[in-house]
Automatic annotation (TrEMBL):
<feature type="signal peptide">
    <location>
        <begin position="1"/>
        <end position="21"/>
    </location>
</feature>
<feature type="domain" description="Periplasmic binding protein">
    <location>
        <begin position="26"/>
        <end position="286"/>
    </location>
</feature>
<dbReference type="Pfam" id="PF13407">
    <property type="entry name" value="Peripla_BP_4"/>
</dbReference>
<keyword id="KW-0732">Signal</keyword>
<dbReference type="GO" id="GO:0030246">
    <property type="term" value="F:carbohydrate binding"/>
</dbReference>
<dbReference type="InterPro" id="IPR025997">
    <property type="entry name" value="SBP_2_dom"/>
</dbReference>
<protein>
    <submittedName>
        <fullName>Fructose import binding protein FrcB</fullName>
    </submittedName>
</protein>
<comment type="similarity">
    <text>Belongs to the bacterial solute-binding protein 2 family.</text>
</comment>
<dbReference type="InterPro" id="IPR028082">
    <property type="entry name" value="Peripla_BP_I"/>
</dbReference>
<dbReference type="GO" id="GO:0030313">
    <property type="term" value="C:cell envelope"/>
</dbReference>
Length: 322
């Protein structure tokens, strides 16, 4: 009887080891592991991996733009047998050689949220249409100003980062102006950081105290801008618009601090990415090109001709602490 039990146990262990050996490995590398956007992305990836029977490896930069840590993560994941790697590149150009090495080794590489430069350095991109996200808040701001002359401050990301460029350019298109338009009275970089957003807004107010429209790259920068406006006693006379759709940002829309924000969906990006990775592991079929994961304008003060949903919808779909 004991011999039979030992034999059954050994068979079970062998089957278990075989199952693990057949389990596809998928990697997720985010810009950081502290931003709620990337926390939600990791959650979506884990849910999809669990549902598909995949092992998920995760890594993140120590800060936004930390290319060295992302390079090491790619190398480690390739060494661990990853069939697919999903990445939000911190440095969209510097990461390209490492992505090429992974692809040359037969690994599917999908960019999430942020395209590489060039875009075709990865097999596919699953992301928000950042140009459209900017265009939505630009069109909203233009409508809300109702013909009143605008003095615009743009609180941007940083030079050369594609997400920041697309959102900024989309905002200008939505507002109906071009780069260099005299309506733009101040532009400052914030790296999407709240403290830097506050400093940038303070600098802009010193340059032109009559600013009445503020575009921000994301909601942390918007929160910083609002603090600066509030400290200057100008928060009620300035139209503040942003992009992200995190729970904190949507609450700030509901509170009237931000007039409108464009909401994006990191959980969906990662879920679709993992599903594509599983398909590749099973069949060898690769995704290609760009998959739009959606964007929605969130505001409680809708404008005619600009499609939007209210903060109740936004809070149901947001990411971060609810």
């Amino acid at each position: 009887m004991k011999k039979m039990q030992r034999a059954l146990f050994a068979l079970a262990m062998t089957c278990s080891a075989a199952a693990l050996a057949d389990q596809p490995v998928i990697g997720l590398i985010t810009k950081t592991d502290t931003n709620p956007f990337f926390v939600k992305m990791k959650q979506g990836a884990q849910q999809a991996a669990d549902a598909g029977g995949a092992k998920l490896l995760t890594a993140a930069g120590r800060y936004d733009g930390d290319n060295a840590t992302q390079v090491t993560a790619i190398e480690n994941m390739v060494g661990a047998g990853a069939k697919a790697i999903l990445i939000t590149p911190g440095d969209t150009k510097a990461i390209v050689p490492s992505i090429k090495k992974a692809r040359d080794a037969g690994v599917l590489v999908i960019a999430l949220d942020t395209p590489t430069e060039p875009k075709d350095a990865t097999d596919a991109l699953f992301a928000t249409d950042n140009y459209k996200a900017g265009e939505l808040i630009g069109a909203y701001a233009k409508s809300a100003m109702a013909g009143k002359p605008a003095k615009i401050a743009t609180l941007d990301l940083a030079p050369g980062i594609s997400v920041g460029v697309l959102r900024h350019d989309g905002f200008l298109k939505g507002y109906g102006i071009k780069a260099g338009d005299p309506a733009i009275v101040c532009s400052q970089d914030t790296r999407g950081d709240q403290a830097k957003g506050q400093t940038a807004m303070e600098n802009c107010l010193q340059k032109n105290p009559d600013i009445n429209v503020v575009y921000t790259i994301n909601e942390p920068a918007a929160a910083g801008a609002y603090r600066a406006l509030q400290a200057a006693g100008k928060e009620k006379g300035v139209l503040l618009v942003s992009i992200d759709g995190g729970c904190e940002g949507v609450r700030n829309v509901k509170a009237g601090q931000i007039a409108a924000t464009s909401q994006q969906y990191p959980l969906k990006m990662a879920s679709l990415g993992v599903q594509a990775g599983l398909e590749y592991a099973k069949t060898g079929k690769k995704p290609s090109g760009y998959t739009d994961t959606g964007v929605t304008l969130i505001t409680d003060k809708p404008e005619s001709g600009v499609s939007s949903k209210d903060t109740t919808f936004g809070l149901n779909e947001c990411w971060g602490s609810k």
